[in-house]
Amino acid sequence: MGLSFTENVRSDLEETSWVRLFSKQRRNEFFVLVAEEFVRDKFNLLFLDMEEKNYRRSLDVIFNEKSESDAGTDADVEAGKLCGRIHARFILTGRGIELMYKKFQNCNFGTCSGVFCRWRNVLPIGMSDTPGNEMVRLFCPM
Ligand SMILES: [Zn+2]
């Protein structure tokens, strides 16, 4: 399937205020913007409804269709987890890899302060597929 993306694609995700707030939280600046086409394709979200409780409500919060998304509430936390899982799938796609690579090149993930690493750009990695199990870590290619 030949989906074409451009850098200037405006997505519903970008426009919702929940996603804007979410992306400003600590560590969430590591996220790239997930293409709307990716989220709208139900195949890409397969089985997430079984793994995430209140899946439907979380999607509503992400798309801002209901206003029960006050920071720190259960709905907010669950929406954040779902967002993380969708993002984890998205960055395995060609477009996702490309966006992550750009962030890596632009040094958006930071640099390594190791003596022999010469401030080499680092890459965030997840040690577990289960949300909340592990904090994000930074991998130094040196
Ligand atoms: Zn290093």
Named CATH topology of one domain: protein kinase ck2 holoenzyme, chain C, domain 1
Q: Tell me, what's the shape?
A: globular
* Major sheet strand order: 1-2
Q: What's the helical proportion of residues?
A: 40-55%
Notes on the structure:
The N terminus is likely disordered. Helix 5 packs across helix 6. Strands 1-2 form a two-stranded antiparallel ribbon. The protein is mainly alpha-helical and 142 residues long. The chain has a domain of 97 residues: protein kinase ck2 holoenzyme, chain C, domain 1 (Orthogonal Bundle), CATH 1.10.1820. The site of zinc ion has 6 residues, from loops. Zinc ion binds next to loops.
Write the layout of secondary structure elements.
Elements lengths: L11 H4 L1 H8 L11 H5 L7 H4 L3 H8 L11 H17 L3 H12 L17 E3 L11 E3 L3
Antiparallel strand pairs: 1-2
Brief characterization of the structure:
The protein has 142 residues and is mainly alpha-helical.
Name the features.
single chain, 142 residues, protein kinase ck2 holoenzyme, chain C, domain 1, 7 helices, 41% helix, disordered N terminus, binds zinc ion
